[in-house]
Design goal:
Helix 2 packs parallel to helix 3, helix 7 packs antiparallel against helix 8 and helix 8 runs antiparallel to helix 9. A 4-stranded parallel β-sheet has the order 1-2-3-4, covered by helices on one side. It is an alpha/beta fold. It has 2 domains: 145 residues, Alpha-Beta Barrel (TIM Barrel), CATH 3.20.20.70; 67 residues. It binds flavin mononucleotide (FMN). The site of flavin mononucleotide has 11 residues, from loops.
Length: 227
């Protein structure tokens, strides 16, 4: 909150829609026509009528400028992550703009909530954020449901494969640090803890990931629990 206000980042622009529109126009002009430009914003800066008007003004402008769609997170900036993402304002937005592509965001923790949010609001689509950290299978599960089948949980082998792939990608990101492997093992601990939720022995595996501090310890957890 402090940073976005001080440095005029992200949600700050919901307080200054004319400036936001200026930026969006510049982006739309700079990007080749064939490439869609999309916008992501919270549902308002706060719950005052003035900020509601700002949101609507900016939201309409996005489509007038030629943005392909807007994704709206159902929390205000002021709310940070406190309290739920409200779906009613998203539903009202869809009801008022039936011909526009509108995406929603907020509190999608499992695959069923994707369909619940779309069912309730009528949104074109939803964006999955914290709910896919440690659960990349949520997208596969959504496709399975769309095809009319029951979603499957990932097998142990699939979980291991993704843990290893995630580790390798993190290692590449940390390549320029003093001890890339140690750094990556430490970074991956928090993801391991999230991934553990899919394991049949979730509590035990979670505890093991909590103690990971070195590459050897990371490998030991995989060797012991993901075979
Ligand atoms: C690690 C992380 C990074 C994010 N980065 C962005 C971002 O770059 N741009 C953006 O519009 N929202 C970003 N968000 C916000 C999410 O897209 C989403 O709107 C918000 O987390 C609410 O959805 P959720 O309750 O399903 O997590 C980020 C969220 C997280 C957790």
């Amino acid at each position: 909150m402090k940073k976005i206000s001080k440095k005029s980042r992200g949600g700050h622009w919901l307080k200054e829609p004319a400036g936001a529109i200026h930026i969006l126009k510049a982006v739309r002009d700079a990007v080749p026509d064939a490439i869609p430009v999309t916008v992501k914003m919270r549902r308002a800066f706060d719950d005052t009528p003035e900020m509601q008007r700002n949101f609507e003004y900016l939201f309409d402008a996005c489509y007038d400028i030629g943005c392909a769609w807007v994704t709206v997170h159902g929390r205000t900036v002021e709310q940070k992550y406190l309290g739920p993402s409200r779906w009613e304002p998203l539903k009202r937005l869809v009801d008022k703009n039936p011909d526009r592509l509108i995406f929603g965001s907020g509190d999608i923790w499992d695959v069923n909530q994707i369909f619940r949010m779309i069912g309730y609001t009528g949104l074109t689509g939803v964006s999955v954020a914290r709910g896919c950290i440690g659960n990349p299978w949520i997208f596969r599960q959504a496709r399975t449901i769309l095809a009319g089948n029951d979603p499957q949980s990932p097998t142990i082998a699939e979980q291991r494969e993704v843990l290893e792939q995630h580790f390798d990608l993190a290692l590449a990101v940390n390549a320029n640090t003093r001890d890339p492997e140690l750094m990556t093992a430490k970074n991956m601990r928090k993801f391991g803890i999230k991934f553990a939720a899919h394991h049949p022995k979730a509590d035990e595996v979670k505890k093991q990931f909590i103690y990971v501090k070195t590459l050897e310890e990371w490998r030991e957890v995989l060797e012991r629990w993901y075979v």
